[in-house]
């Protein structure tokens, strides 16, 4: 069976870290080899770009600079981690991918979606996720969870944004999901963690069963 590319998306505080562990368990219990990775990041070079993107500084970062750095990190991530794994029929699970760029840099920052699409085609060619799991929760709920999670930790550059920014992020994600219902599965992340995990497990097991049928 060929490898599949699964992405996990959602705004701050929706519980991606917890649920990524559940996804890894489901894949392992199904006998599937997988790698877990993240964006921005995933390789030493991309992790250095991640630091540039997340670390607050006195120098303002233009939205265009942010967008290009995202795709620079994505390019090295794709060529050095994602594509080689898929070529070996390994399943790849990425904590965020290009849908995050459409949500954060597009919907929230106001960068033209056509510009993002051009960079997507340039960097990814025809490669797109096979399945995208969108963890969705009201912004107030998610940000309160993020606040509790981050107590005593340094706040990154995105977490300093206003609530209106994250409302636009959420709207951008839900718009993407509405436009591509065959690829997206929207999981209600406002539920208790155990219920979110159960929903995610059921969704993923059904997808794996279908993948095994189609090879």
Describe what you observe in this structure:
This protein has 8 helices and 5 strands; from the N terminus they run βαβααβααβααβα. The chain has a 5-stranded parallel β-sheet, with helices on both faces. The protein has helices spanning 16-29, 44-54, 63-87, 98-108, 113-124, 139-149, 163-179, 193-214, and strands at 5-9, 34-38, 91-95, 131-136, 184-188. It has a single domain (5-214), classed as 3-Layer(aba) Sandwich (Rossmann fold). Helix 3 runs parallel beside helix 5 (113-124). By secondary structure, it is of the alpha/beta class.
Give the key terms.
215 residues, Rossmann fold, five-stranded parallel sheet
Strands, helices and their partners?
Layout: E1 5-9, H1 16-29, E2 34-38, H2 44-54, H3 63-87, E3 91-95, H4 98-108, H5 113-124, E4 131-136, H6 139-149, H7 163-179, E5 184-188, H8 193-214
Parallel strand pairs: 1-3, 1-4, 2-3, 4-5
Helix pairs in contact: 1-8, 2-3, 3-5, 4-7
Which regions contain 5 or more consecutive residues with pLDDT less than 50? Answer: none
Strand residue content: 5-15%
| Domain module count | 1
Q: So what's the overall shape? A: globular
**Helix proportion:** 55-70%
Quick structural summary:
This protein is α/β, with parallel strands linked by helices and 215 residues long.
């Amino acid at each position: 069976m060929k490898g599949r590319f699964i992405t996990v998306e959602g705004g701050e505080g929706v519980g991606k870290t917890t649920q990524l562990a559940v996804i890894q368990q489901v894949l392992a219990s199904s006998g599937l080899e997988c790698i877990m990775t993240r964006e921005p990041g995933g390789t030493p070079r991309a992790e250095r770009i991640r630091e540039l993107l997340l670390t607050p500084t006195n120098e303002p970062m233009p939205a265009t600079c942010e967008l290009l750095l995202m795709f620079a990190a994505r390019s090295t991530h794709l060529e050095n981690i994602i594509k080689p794994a898929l070529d070996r029929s390994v399943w790849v699970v990425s904590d965020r991918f290009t849908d995050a760029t459409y949500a954060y840099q597009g919907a929230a920052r106001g960068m033209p979606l056509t510009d993002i699409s051009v960079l997507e085609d340039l960097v990814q060619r025809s490669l797109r996720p096979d399945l995208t799991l969108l963890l969705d929760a009201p912004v107030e709920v998610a940000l309160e969870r993020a606040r509790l999670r981050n107590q005593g930790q340094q706040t990154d550059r995105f977490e300093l944004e206003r609530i209106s920014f994250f409302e636009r992020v959420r709207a951008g994600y839900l718009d993407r999901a509405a436009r591509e219902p065959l690829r997206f599965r929207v999981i209600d992340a406002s539920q208790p963690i155990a219920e979110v995990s159960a929903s995610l497990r059921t969704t993923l097991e059904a997808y794996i069963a279908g993948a095994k049928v189609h090879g």
